[in-house]
Design a protein that fits this description.
Number of strands: 26
Radius of gyration: 24 Å
Structural class: mainly beta
Strand content: 25-35%
Helix content: 10-25%
Shape: globular
Distance between the termini: 58 Å
């Protein structure tokens, strides 16, 4: 009997794929992730939560595959009532070789990358015990590297009210639009701050940075309620639409260094407008989604009512994304956790291409990949960020061959969609 017990103790642990919202942790259990799943992973804290952020386009090149990488971004804070809200402009320098990150002052890193040779070793690691050892090494490296991290200056710009949404213009990335919980929509010129970030070559120690006063180019107070929906046209520079919680959508036209806002709104939704997306190919066409469960297509040339409208979900439609590589495809995410793909060429009939009920809580953001027309990312209030490839289909023979190679590794549950490529579970309360 002793020999049998010894044999059982020496068997490798049985791994299972964790399914958030389905599986429960037993007492004493904890989740572990495999660092080999990431080429690069970092986390940082900017002090206050932000409801919205946007990547600022730069002129450093479209296809950048080698480290170090530079990223510019803007974000807007959600702060307690007694504190001053502000907009953040920042640059991040991501250097894989030296494990160095130049980013926001006062931040705390939660995840650090392996050096390249460690990542390569883990990729070829098939032994579960060795994988756990490498995970522990990851944690040790994180602690050591966190103490030696340096950061680059960022800028904070005072903002009236919580920033519900912030968006950078495609053609002029230093121009940003913000939605405030005060009901105001403002357009800003952050060229001075972004230029300083681009010119700065020195790192500074972490510490508090002052909040600067900066006047917006325009402040529009014609909305009767706060809102979240806003989008810049990718085809006509400076053209903007903003939608509020009273179902009104206003069109902004650029004029002599400012904007003329049409005070006569587009009307067609029965509830709050949650998101807006301009057509990637037509400068006069945009789409909206609403709490009324509908997606509407609008043409600015033919009046103030929707050209098309479709019931997209049984619950609120929180977000939409118009595919810029396959312009007939529209993705939408709902409050019930589902997301759908529609072919706009058949919007009057059966336009539904795919419908997924994977997430267990509201979908908070959805975005098509700018490089692969069949790939998109979805974030949810269930603390998951998932990546999907709609071109994939289940192949039982290929799956059987793959399982044979995995041996003691975990296999995916049968009910997982074959289009699900990746699950990232670190985020909490992720937003658009």
């Amino acid at each position: 009997m002793a020999n049998v017990v010894l044999l059982l103790l020496s068997l490798p642990p049985q791994h299972q794929v964790w399914r958030p919202g389905v599986d429960q942790l037993e007492e004493g259990e904890e989740l572990q992730f495999d660092p080999s799943a990431y080429n690069y992973l970092r986390g940082f804290d900017i002090g206050w939560p932000c409801l919205s952020f946007d990547i600022v386009h730069d002129s450093l090149g479209l296809v950048r595959t080698e480290f170090p990488h530079t990223v510019y971004g803007v974000a807007g804070t959600q702060i307690l009532a007694n504190f001053l809200h502000y907009i953040i402009t920042a640059t991040l320098l991501l250097d894989l070789n030296s494990c160095r990150l130049s980013k926001l002052p006062g931040t705390t890193l939660e995840f650090l990358n392996f050096p390249k040779y460690v990542v390569k070793d883990v990729n070829y690691c098939q032994n579960s015990l060795l994988t756990m050892m490498m995970t522990k090494i990851w944690k040790v490296i994180s602690v050591v590297m966190r103490k030696t991290m340096k950061v680059r200056v960022l800028h904070k710009v005072a903002h009236q009210g919580c920033v519900n949404r912030i968006r950078s213009m495609y053609q002029k990335p230093h121009i940003c639009a913000t939605w405030a919980d005060t009901g105001h929509v403002q357009v800003w010129d952050f060229s001075a701050y972004l230029n300083k970030l681009a010119e700065s070559e020195t790192d500074v120690s972490r510490g508090a940075t002052s909040i600067e006063r900066h006047s917006p180019i325009i402040k529009y107070d014609g909305h009767n309620e706060e809102g979240y929906a806003i989008d810049w046209s990718p085809n006509k520079p400076g053209r903007l639409v903003s939608g509020d919680c009273k179902s009104c959508i206003h069109l902004w036209e650029p004029a002599s260094g400012s904007w003329n806002v049409d005070k006569n709104p587009f009307l067609g939704h029965a509830a709050s407008v949650e998101d807006l997306q301009w057509s990637p190919t037509e400068e006069d066409v945009f789409a909206s989604c609403s709490v009324d469960g509908k997606i509407a297509i609008w043409d600015t040339r033919v009046g103030k009512s929707p050209a098309l409208s479709v019931k997209a979900h049984d619950a609120d439609v929180n977000v939409i994304s118009w595919n810029r590589l396959a312009s007939c495809m529209m993705a939408s995410g709902s409050d019930d956790g589902s997301f759908s793909i529609r072919d706009l060429r058949f919007i009057k009939g059966d336009s539904l291409v795919a419908h997924f009920q994977y997430h267990k809580h509201p979908v908070t953001s959805i975005e098509w990949c700018p490089h692969e027309q069949s790939t998109l990312a979805v974030s949810s209030a269930d603390n998951q960020l998932t990546i999907w490839d709609l071109s994939l289909e289940r192949d039982e023979e290929e799956e059987a061959e793959f399982k044979a190679k995995l041996k003691e590794q975990a296999t995916a549950p049968e009910d997982l969609p074959p289009q699900l490529l990746f699950v990232h579970q670190v985020l909490t309360l992720s937003r658009k």
